[in-house]
Amino acid sequence: MLSQNDSNRWKKFKKQTEESFLSRKAELLIIIYGAYKPLVEEERLIALRDFLKDEGYVSTYIVKEFPTDGNSVSPNLSKSLECLEVADLNILVFTCRGNTDSVTIELKHAIDNDLLSKCKVFEEVHNGITAMGTLPKEGLIAERYEVVQFERQNDNDLHEHALGDVLAFFTKFAKRHM
Q: What fold, for 28-176?
């Protein structure tokens, strides 16, 4: 049995560790990628961002929130590829109704530049039909990367899957930075 002194020391250590761990949530830079058209798809990305912020991941953004470099030939693409580099965690969302051309390019960039370790990929599914095309899926299979699927129009499912994956990523992130 622990002495009173050792028990207090243990409790103090656990409290400091937990406080330090939780304070790291604000440091985790999360960037969300996906379709902005039709507009309802952008609203879904914003809802995911807001959900994660409400869970304490306050440094969560969609790519559109970052400034665009007007000097680039393709400023939005350049911005999103730079975001892949700077983020601690990238969340790429493929939806059935959205135009996913840009998120496909972003995913290919992540695969080609060894950034998958800081990416989570989510794919909407409807009646067994998946939102992601064959080519990006083949790249993920080659990397032995598993995509998380969620049911069409079930944003609660997406949010819960994303939160679980963010928490798992955050736990590793916080331990590395403690």
A: Rossmann fold (3.40.50)
